[in-house]
Amino acid sequence: MDKESLLAKLVELHDADQHEEALELIEKTPESERDYLIASYYARALNNLDRYEEALQILMRLESEGANDPFWHFRVGYSLYYLEREAEAAGYFKRALELGDYYESTPILLKRSLIEALYKESFAVILEKLKEDDARELFSSDWDFLFIFLNKYSAILKITPDDEKQFALSDAQHTLCAYHFFHREVTNGGFIQLIHNGFGPYIFESPFVENIRLWGAERTADIIDKAELVYNIHKDKIEKEMTDKEFSELYSKLTDFEKLEKKLYKIMDEETKIIRDYIEEHLDEFVISTNDASADE
User: Fold this and answer.
1) Domains and CATH numbers, the chain
2) Nearby residues of 17 by Cβ (< 8 Å), 6 or more positions away
């Protein structure tokens, strides 16, 4: 196969997500005939097969030739990002854009790299950074901001024995964790999923509702209060072990949550913003001041 036909076939395989086939085709090509572009396509296929270390090794051998190639910078950044080397990845994504990279995913990956690199810093470093306009813009998403805290709490809870978890975080910190679980479960499968997955007591039988009402999320608190009445009647039926089919059937049998969920979905973004505002005004309640605030996530 001549080079032009080989390159055309590699593009065709890439567009069809046939990355294994692309690797096999390149590997059949003598190394002496694998120029910069073919080697780049080889690294691209490895990246798409989650073989990031191998891809990175090949790409770094092409560094001098790829210095002014936006796609080389993108591929290096991609490998580094998925190897959880986000701070390094950000530099490559930024340079790719400067060189004219037109991939829609590049600015998204650049932002995620910057955010996730900052998540790994200590609270002190993060809060200092948030005084800068660029960093505040980076965390314009309320959930990106909330995960500054949630990631730290998660890291602490992972290394805390189960019987000590309730004491590992403060009341406010547990409430923020509960809001995350509440939002995740209800947006994915409503109150029925929330209860079936074991979060009922964490939401309905704790200070959670009282706390978010004090934070200003009064409409969410009112909806949860009404949902609690339904929870108390049906919790045994919802919480018990069952097949996937039986779980699915609960949605047609227990419709009491539906109106509450519709109201909740309309206000969730606004209520999350209210919670973010409360945290920004009361940072001392949410920051963990120990030296391990930079614990690995």
Assistant:
1) 3-119 (1.25.40.10), 124-294 (1.20.1420.60)
2) 48
Nearest Cα to Cα of residue 226 among 271, 181, 264, 280: 264
Cα 179 to Cα 62, 182, 247, distances in angstroms = 47, 5, 24
pTM for the full predicted model? 0.80
Alpha carbon separation from 154 to 57, 101, 102, 124, 128 (Å, rounded): 33, 35, 36, 18, 22
Look-up of token digits 């934070």? 215
- Pick the closest to residue 40 from 20, 13, 61 (CA basis): 61
What crossing angle do the helices spanning 258-281 and 171-196 adopt, rounded to 10°? 160
Question: Per-10-residue mean pLDDT for the chain, 297 residues long?
Answer: 85 93 91 89 95 97 96 97 96 96 93 92 86 85 95 89 86 96 97 97 95 98 97 96 96 96 97 97 84 39
Contacts of 255 (CB under 8 A, 6+ apart): none
